[in-house]
Amino acid sequence: MIVSSSKRPEVKGFFDPRTWSIQYVAFDPETRDCVIIDPVLDFDEKSGSTRTGNADAILSYVAENNLKIAYILDTHPHADHFSAAHYLKNKTGAPTAIGEHVVDVQQLWKDIYNSPTQATDGSQWDRLFAHNDRFKVGTIDAHVLFSPGHTLASVTYVIGDAAFVHDTLFMPDSGTARADFPGGSAKMLWASIQGILALPNETRVFTGHDYQPGGREPLWESTVNEQRLMNPHVAGKSEADFVTLREARDKTLPMPKLILHALQVNVNGGRLPPPEENGRRYLKFPLDAFPGAVWG
Ligand SMILES: N[C@@H](CCC(=O)N[C@@H](CS)C(=O)NCC(=O)O)C(=O)O
Ligand SMILES: [Fe+2]
């Protein structure tokens, strides 16, 4: 296992109440180099309207704090919102990156959407990270853990003492992410969670969603130790317990309302479909692609 430096990035979380997503800016306070993690491009499915409010708030924070963007990172191709990575790259010129197994997710959804022109080589990003790949955020060492289970391509970014785990562990009162999307696996998610829990106890854990159980205020930061001791999907559980619990809960969850909207954009790095001859962009949905998802 790679042991990252114990340097401490400053971390700012931006909660998006529409999708319960947390977007992050993590930076080296010495050099002011930063990464943006999992930025959201706003979308209202009822009207088909897009907006860049979340991404622009991140850009304002970057400007106000004199930060230089090293990377725009996604932890996985999201199923519940559009990624703002492409928008932010256009605005700033900063490179984008995601886990290398995004190519498997592209292939999966190319078939579901029947889109023969879909590129499935990951060329929509500037860098594709493999397990244990390293990079720097200023003077802070960072590395990548391949963390599949929620999706085939999920990764965790470990930046100094901070782990950006997105949809693996939620807050310790909220359990874990679902593992029933196409390409998901509760068994793989368990193994990925063990990889995160093997980080030093005091590692700060930043989750990607908070669904505010019981209506509490949104929270997103815990530690490996708190997760190990208090997360009910992990504490005292065996792999078999977890798989049983996860699969039972997943059977009760409806598909995210934006899964069919989001994947066609996110397998293209957050690019909206190109405009048609009238200048308007259109999404495409398969019908009956998930037998059993609703009516058994
Ligand atoms: N109600 C939300 C659910 C989104 C969802 O399924 N989120 C995933 C992460 S992308 C998850 O792991 N959810 C766990 C849960 O809902 O318990 C929506 O429709 O967008
Ligand atoms: Fe997700």
Explain the overall architecture.
By secondary structure, this protein is an alpha/beta fold. It has helices spanning 53-64, 85-92, 102-113, 186-197, 224-230, 239-252, 259-266, and strands spanning 10-16, 21-27, 33-37, 40-44, 49-51, 68-73, 82-83, 96-99, 127-129, 134-137, 140-146, 155-159, 162-166, 204-207, 221-223.
SSE layout and pairing:
Layout: E1 10-16, E2 21-27, E3 33-37, E4 40-44, E5 49-51, H1 53-64, E6 68-73, E7 82-83, H2 85-92, E8 96-99, H3 102-113, E9 127-129, E10 134-137, E11 140-146, E12 155-159, E13 162-166, H4 186-197, E14 204-207, E15 221-223, H5 224-230, H6 239-252, H7 259-266
Parallel strand pairs: 3-6, 6-8, 8-9, 13-14
Antiparallel strand pairs: 1-2, 2-3, 4-5, 4-7, 10-11, 11-12, 12-13, 14-15
The structure holds glutathione and fe (ii) ion (FE2).
